[in-house]
Structure formats: structure tokens, C-alpha cells
Design goal:
The chain is an alpha/beta fold and 249 residues long. It is built from nine helices and seven strands, in the order E-H-E-H-E-E-H-H-E-H-E-H-E-H-H-H. Strands 3-4-2-5-1-6-7 form a seven-stranded parallel beta sheet, with helices on both faces. Helix 6 links the parallel strand 6 and strand 7. Helix 1 packs across helix 9 and helix 4 packs across helix 5. The protein is globular, with a radius of gyration of 17 Å. 47% of the residues are buried. The structure holds adenosine-5'-diphosphate and magnesium ion.
């Protein structure tokens, strides 16, 4: 099982939208996908039909949780309130338990794990990065988000020292409003300054993405002309992720 973490210190930048669509795409091409909600529940809501009834905090415990049988191609490890305690657990214990507990799901036949994380740079993120093969960072083209990415890069570099298989999958400009000149300028500046750090995908600001997340479907399944461009962008994101971690089909 390969593990991909979606991370960014700031909230509201498109992490959950990216996580959901990367998972939907991987499942559609035939991978068995575990989605883990380390945040407070948006992804759990979108993926509620795939709930395994294993809470995210159970991945941090000293004993591995049982892996429930499921015929679905997607299995959800849902957000739960006990994640609040995980934030205060010793780092060493989190770094040890989380990858070991995830391994149970690999043994049970999951091919890919997509981890959605909370804003901030705490223990759950460190543990997720310790287990990860790749990390993807959605970023809004606003000053605070662009600033935030520098802290995230530092956290990823630290994680790489302990986990050498960790690959930086890139910054994904997300929720980009192409009618907003400031955002367009930020995107151009970002391309000029950090070309090698940018993923070759841009996700535009499109209401159909929010609509799709609300009904638990990928945006490419929304049958409205207005959703077509969003569908193509999210598909491209899903393909890019699988390509980079060598799981394309
Ligand atoms: N490309 C997009 N276009 C329009 N709205 C989006 C897009 N991506 C996400 N959203 C919406 O914006 C909000 C924040 O996105 P979300 O993925 O939840 O960010 P995060 O997980 O980083 O907090 C949500 O309400 C979501 O439905
Ligand atoms: Mg989120």
C-alpha cells in the first residue's frame, strides 16, 4: 500500500477536495483505497457511505484496530473527537503506532491510502508524513497561504530526514479564481519563483466542486455543463498523483 498525505498549514485551501478526488479517481481505476480523516469531519461527511467504523484516533493507539471486511473499493477511517487527545501524545509513540497500524490495512488488501490532515503542523501531521510515500500541498493564491507553504516545506524536509521514501508531490494551486487579477498574478509569480515545486495541475474556483463534495460524489459525475471543467481538473489531479507514486493504470 502506498500512502499519500494532503497537507497545508492553512484551512480552507482545498485539502479535503483534493483528498476526496484523488481517492475517487484511484478507486475508479480499480485500486482499493483507504481514506483517513485526521481533521474534524469534512472528508468523513463526503465519504460517509464508505465508513468502516474505525475512528482515526484508533490509528494512534498501541494496539492495532481490527480491519473490518468491506466490499467497497473505498474504506473510510472517520474523524473522531478523540483526535483531540492525539494532539498531545508523545511524538515518538505517534511516529511508531500510526505507520504500524496502517500496515494492517495494507495486509488486508488496500492498495492506496489517502490521508486528509487538519490545518496546523502538529503530531498527527508528523505521524502521517512518517508513514507517507508522497505529500501534496494545495495552496490558495492568497498571501497568507503562500506564506504558509514555507512552514509546511520545513516540516516536510524534517519528515524526509526520518522517512526517506517520502516524496514531495508538489504544490497544487487550488480554488484559483482566474477572474481575480491578484490571484492570476500570484499564480504567475509562483510559477516564476517555484516552477520545480509546482504540480502540473491547477484547480480553479468552481462551485460544482463544493456541490459534489456535499453529495459525496466526484465532481466529474455531476451532470451539468458547468461541472465539466472542474471534472477535468480534478481528474488531472487524481491521475497526476497516481502517476507520481507509480500506481497509474
Ligand atoms: N476548486 C474549488 N472550487 C470551489 N470551491 C471549492 C473548491 N475546492 C474546495 N472548495 C470548497 O471550499 C471550501 C474549502 O475547501 P476544502 O477542500 O474543505 O479545504 P481544506 O480541506 O483545506 O479546509 C469547502 O467549502 C469546499 O467545498
Ligand atoms: Mg479539510
Amino acid at each position: 500500500m502506498k500512502t499519500v498525505v494532503i497537507a497545508q498549514g492553512k484551512g480552507g485551501v482545498g485539502k479535503t477536495a483534493s483528498a476526496a478526488h484523488a481517492a475517487f479517481h484511484a478507486a475508479e481505476v480499480g485500486h482499493k483505497v483507504l481514506v483517513v480523516d485526521l481533521d474534524t469531519g469534512n472528508l468523513s461527511k463526503t465519504m460517509s457511505q464508505y465508513r468502516l467504523d474505525v475512528p482515526a484516533s484508533a490509528l494512534f493507539g498501541d494496539t492495532p484496530p481490527p480491519v473490518p471486511d468491506s466490499d467497497n473499493l473505498i474504506g473510510l477511517i472517520n474523524a473522531d473527537r478523540l483526535m483531540a487527545n492525539v494532539t498531545f501524545m508523545p511524538l515518538g509513540q505517534a511516529l511508531k503506532n500510526f505507520p504500524a497500524n496502517l500496515r494492517q490495512f495494507a495486509n488486508a488488501g488496500y492498495d492506496l491510502c489517502v490521508v486528509d490532515t487538519a490545518p496546523g503542523l502538529g503530531i498527527p501531521l508528523a505521524a502521517a508524513l512518517h508513514a507517507a510515500d508522497g505529500v501534496l500541498c494545495p495552496v490558495e493564491m492568497e498571501d497568507y497561504s503562500i506564506e504558509g507553504i514555507k512552514d509546511m516545506m520545513r516540516v516536510i524536509l524534517n519528515a524526509k530526514q526520518r522517512n526517506q521514501k517520502l516524496q514531495f508531490l508538489g504544490i497544487v494551486p487550488s480554488r484559483v479564481d482566474r477572474r481575480n487579477p491578484r490571484q492570476v498574478r500570484h499564480l504567475e509569480e509562483m510559477r516564476a519563483a517555484n516552477a520545480n515545486l509546482l504540480a502540473p495541475v491547477v484547480v480553479g474556483l468552481r462551485t460544482s466542486v463544493a456541490a459534489a463534495l456535499a453529495v459525496g460524489e466526484p465532481v466529474w459525475q455531476i451532470k451539468k455543463t458547468a461541472a465539466r471543467a472542474a471534472g477535468a481538473e480534478m481528474r488531472a489531479l487524481g491521475k497526476y498523483v497516481l502517476d507520481k507514486i507509480e500506481m497509474a493504470k
